[in-house]
Each structure stands twice: as structure tokens, then as C-alpha cells.
Amino acid sequence: MATERLILRRFRASDAPALAAYRSDPEVARYQSWDAPFPIERARVAVRNFAASSPAAAGWFQYAIELAAEQRLIGDVAVRLHDNLLQGEIGFTLATAYQRRGFATEAVGAVLDRLFRVQGLHKVTGECDARNIRSAALMERLGFRREGLLRQQTYIKGEWTDDLLYGLLSTEWTGR
């Protein structure tokens, strides 16, 4: 799948060093489930697992975000399809050097378009740490509605954190 500046594709083995590099950045890892540094061997295992999954099957699928002009991996978009294949959850990660340039909005928008228009999903949700205002703003820019706040929901990196819940219906996406 391609946008004006990006290629969203399946991960390949050669992506492991770039994945390890951006996931090792403490700013990138701050609100994520992993800790920095993210060792290369862990990245190799992750890339193998990402490559073995299917975007049309229930469970997680990770799209690699490649900057077309540089043929460089700059991030990823994760999608978890529910067993009914009509609902999903989305997450995203972008290397620090490529943030605040519209790449995440472009990538997530392309994935949402595929989920709603091609795969026929009814609803996609997103969740983020309530302190992660940039992720919340990205979801809101794409039309997600804030559906809830779960207070002290997640124990991560030694502290309890609040989670924001977002949802987007297919009719909201296709009607924009």
C-alpha cells in the first residue's frame, strides 16, 4: 500500500536494525510496552513474527512504514483484528527524526482506509497513555472520538498510568 510519501508493507528481515534503532530511543519507548534499549536480537525475533502474520487474519499485524524517497524504515502501524474480523485496534510508532512531519497521520490514515474500505471493518479503536498528547491528537485529527478515560489502568515502567480510549466507526471514516 502506498501514499504520496510512504510505502506501507510487510516487515522483512533487513528491517531488524532500523526497528532496533528507533525502538531503542527512550523518547519513542516512553509510552510503549517495551523498554529502551531494544536489542537487535529482540528486533530480529519481532520482525520474523511480524512477517509471519496476516493482515486479514484475527490477531496482530504490523505494517512497516517506509519513507519512499529514502527507502528507509521509519516506523510501524499495528493492527489487531478481533475474531469477528469486523472490529480492530490500531497503534503506531514513528522514529523521532520523522515525527511532527505528518508521516504518522499519513500512514495511519492509509491503514484506516484499507481497514474500512477494503476489509469492511465496522469499528477501529485506539488507546494511549493519557500523557501522550501527540498520539491522542493524531487520533482526533483522523476523526476518532474520545470514548473514555480509564484511571490508573496500566502498570507500566514502575507506575500506574491513565489510558485514553478512542473509537472510529466506518460510517464516520467513509463519510468524511
UniProtKB/TrEMBL annotation:
Domain N-acetyltransferase, residue spans: 6-171
Organism: Actinoplanes xinjiangensis
Keywords: Transferase
Lineage, broadest ranks: Bacteria, Bacillati, Actinomycetota, Actinomycetes, Micromonosporales
Keyword Transferase tagged: yes
Protein name, UniProt field: RimJ/RimL family protein N-acetyltransferase
Molecular function, one GO term: acyltransferase activity, transferring groups other than amino-acyl groups
Listed InterPro entries: Acyl_CoA_acyltransferase, GNAT_dom, N-acetyltransferase
Pfam families the record matches: Acetyltransf_3
